[in-house]
Amino acid sequence: MTDQTALFEYLLRLGDNTLVLGHRVSEWCGHAPVLEEDIALANTALDLIGQTQMWLGLAGEVENAGRSADDLAMHRDVWDFRNLLLVEQPNGDFGQTLMRQCLFDAFHVELLTDLTNASDDRIAAIAAKALKEVTYHLDRSSETVIGLGDGTDESHRRMQAALDLLWPYVGEMFTPDAVDDAMRAAGIAPDLNDLRARFDTRIDAILTEATLAKPESAYAQSGGKTGFRHSEHLGHMLTQMQWLQRAYPGATW
Amino acid sequence: MYAQMVKSEASQDDPEKLAGFQARIDAGEKIEPKDWMPEGYRKTLIRQIGQHAHSEIVGQLPEGNWITRAPTLERKAILLAKVQDEAGHGLYLYCAAETLGVSRDELTEMLLDGRMKYSSIFNYPTLTWADMGAVGWLVDGAAIMNQVPLQRTSYGPYSRAMIRICKEESFHQRQGYHIMMKMAQGTPAQKKMAQDALNRFWYPSLMMFGPSDKDSVHSAQSMKWKIKMNTNDELRQKFVDQTVPQAEFLGLTVPDDTLRWNEEKSGYDFAEPDWSEFFDVIQGNGPCNTERLAARNKAWDDGAWVREGLMAHAAKKRAAKLAAE
Amino acid sequence: MSQEWPLWEVFIRGQHGLNHRHVGSLHAPDAEMAIKNARDVYTRRNEGVSIWVVEAQHITASSPSDKGPLYEPSESKVYRHPTFFDIPDEAGHM
């Protein structure tokens, strides 16, 4: 794999994560448990969509085949997507959405922190901007996970169920492959073992305060970031997201 | 408008106090929450601000319907930001109503069980992407027509909420018109979509101002109190006069054969909407009444455990803090 | 109906050096969440650099009938306002 190919793949991972999660979070608009949460979720989704424009925009530049961020978002099929399985999981109830958010945010904050030191200035600059936003995302999602975990019997039960459901998707974030290795060698991507340790420290503290039990099984689903095997959910999301562009090819909006 | 057909309450208060109150309003003073006010003024305002707030919240749904299908990342972000603003505007308005002695949860329950209404316009479906253009251009355009003068309304908290809302809404109508421009200049299919959206939203937009209120006692009282600033017919005329040239610019046809410029009144003559349809929609028989209320009820019911959970956690934190002191 | 989240009043310092100004209200279960909600609700357009929240029930307000005694005395002290003093333009900026 050439460095350019690996870089393109890596940027797709970054951009597809924010694209897919931003899309999922935007599904809440108008349906959240309380107005303040509705507005806060929309802010998170807006940040993620903005980050997508930057990551996929850069991916298009690196690919140098004339594809814009929109082209990449709207004209690739499931097997071309490089997002983590975690972020394509359905929203479920509000607790499941916030648990997914918190797990991703804890990873995302650490990842972006390291990327601000990337040898590629363009990546470092995007990471620096995104990190400010994502630091707040984690602040908010962790506080909500803690509040609901420690809240009523029902909210505790639901948060534990959400954690149990989503935990198998945590491992994929930290399992390195050839793309990660190439990017690490190029001075861009961080050491995922080191990232995992920092993630665990954060998540353990949050779960303890939330009175939630971390699942014991370390089994990790995989296939999202490599594109080898996504879940069935992603295809349904894409049929919505890409429908207009696919139905009216060549139109501008 | 977002608050259609708000009944004003008769006041049974002391005539001397009423006269003093009216004098303050006539002098352009703002009424603040702790000031004396006639019971009728208070109740009418709760009804009007509440209806306005409910309209913002239910109004999230028809546009929210297209957030996940927006054609580009930028369109998705713009639409999401706009629908989020509507949630914000609902929030500001509920807060204004709360200064009158009713809680947001009480108002919400009244919306959910049908005791309070919201604007008829949000009971129409959004079927194509062009509807996002039409809603921004026509629905927000009609709303702005009413909201700009309401910035001068007599009740301080309502006036301040409207000022903030108007400031934030300035981009809403423009983004809608921008979508329409793209569609009208686009492929034949896009142009057809744009015309179809105008055809479906024209009359429901005219209905937003409510039926003629020339002879309405309620309107007269509300205007005297400066919680209604213009008659429905004045605003509707202004809306038509403003919108017709915009439609012409797009190369779209307003679905009204009788539409003519009337030099004498220097405004357009236009056909009235079908008011029986309006009353049907208000009564709950619009194309989407059931879905809209069901969606709001579901969000509220499904969210109960979240609201309770976070409240319970806050209470535990407070107790722990007290114990530590 | 379950217990409603309390109402908070929100004050925002728009720019460095300015006073915090009341911008509106919101609901939140506690002060920490109120701050976060204020950030999400009231600073969507970069309006603030610092946020205060206070639970609405803890605000003591003057009653309208006090308006005369509280404020009118200062109304007669017009000399407290710079425009009271007529300074010729020739004196320069002051």
Helix content of chain B: 55-70%
The shape of chain B is globular
State the secondary-structure class of chain B: mainly alpha
- Straight-line N-to-C gap of chain B: 53 Å
Radius of gyration of chain B: 21 Å
Note the main sheet of chain A: none
Mean pLDDT across every amino acid position of chain B = 94
SSE order of chain A: HHHHHHHHHHH
**Share of helix among residues of chain A?**
55-70%
Count the domains of chain A.
Answer: 1
Beta-strand content of chain B: under 5%
Describe this structure in words.
- The complex is a heterotrimer of chains A (253), B (325) and C (94).
- With 253 residues, chain A is mostly helical.
- Chain A has a single domain (3-247), classed as Ferritin (Up-down Bundle).
- Chain A contains eleven helices and no strands.
- In chain A, helix 1 (3-26) crosses helix 8, helix 2 (35-63) packs antiparallel against helix 6 (121-149) and helix 5 packs antiparallel against helix 6.
- Chain A is globular and about 55 Å long.
- The longest helix of chain B is centred in the middle third of the chain and has 29 residues, at 156-184.
- Chain B is globular, with a radius of gyration of 21 Å.
- The relative contact order of chain B is 0.12.
- The mean pLDDT of chain B is 94.
- Chain C is of the alpha+beta class and 94 residues long.
- Helix content of chain C is 22%, strand content 22%.
- Chain C has two helices and three strands; from the N terminus they run E-E-H-E-H.
- Chain C has helices at residues 31-42, 67-75; strands spanning 7-13, 20-27, 50-55.
- Chain C has a three-stranded antiparallel beta sheet with strand order 2-1-3, covered by helices on one side.
- The radius of gyration of chain C is 20 Å and the shape is flat.
- The chains are: A mainly alpha (253), B mainly alpha (325), C alpha+beta (94).
- Chains in contact: A-B, A-C, B-C.
- The interface between A and B is large, with 53 and 50 residues.
- Chain C: This is Phenylacetate-CoA oxygenase.
- Chain C: It comes from Marivita geojedonensis.
- Chain C: InterPro entries: PaaB, PaaB_sf.
